Amino acid sequence: MDADIDPLVLDVLLVCVAAGAQRQRCLEAAQRWEEVVTASRRRKCAAWARFLIRRRVRARLRAMRMRRRMLVERIWVVQRARMATFNQVAYYLTLTELRASRRWWVYPRSSELWNVYARVIWEDEQWLARFRMTWATFQWLVDCLQPHLEHQVTVMRAPISVEERVAIAIAWLGNTLSYLDVGDRFGVARSTVSGIVIEVCLAIEAHLLRSMVCLRSAGRVSISPVKHKH
After folding, report:
1. pLDDT digits (tens, 9 = 90+) for 31-90
2. Is 63 strand, coil or helix?
3. How far is CA 77 from the centre of its chain?
4. Helix/strand number for the chain, H first, E second
5. What b/e readout covers 75-110, taking b as 16+ CB neighbours within 10 angstroms?
6. pLDDT in tens, 197-206
């Protein structure tokens, strides 16, 4: 029977069989490649999905932190505003109570040290120890500053005399005393001592500096003699 088959037909059959087998192998290879590509795409898609999920989670966490921070800042601002309002109300109530319960318009203080001891009892030794000058020198300084420190007498109350003003300034300049200590010695308030010290110092600088100290050169200073008025 094999002898009856034409060789050409046999070649054609062999070629067809080989082509079919090759086609089958090509299909299998294509199928395997498609599976590989599909698995790779799935892995890439899964990785991309995980990346997107992580980025979304991080964005949400960042937004939550920002909202929490803004909420904390708002709470802190509200608390500070409430504390400021509370402090203002407490300060106002305290001032109201102090004004309502004030016993004196001017707090009473004793000026016995100046009016009795310094002006009447003390001698030059005590004056030198406490004011760094004698009574005569002090009176000369008062006479020089009298036109510039004298205040006008009004109907409210009598002003502090020039003698006491100069004594307050010298007591503060010549000793290591605070404004409060000087005020207690002379019977005046601390703010009054501060204003008097500045006023006397400015008067001395404006009216006695050039007449008492002459600067001729950088290395030579001459001081004119002081003439006491007795």
Report:
1. 777 777 777 777 777 778 778 888 888 888 888 888 888 888 888 888 888 888 878 877
2. helix
3. 18
4. 8, 2
5. eeeeeeeeeeeeeeeeeeeeeeeeeeeeeeeeeeee
6. 999 999 988 8
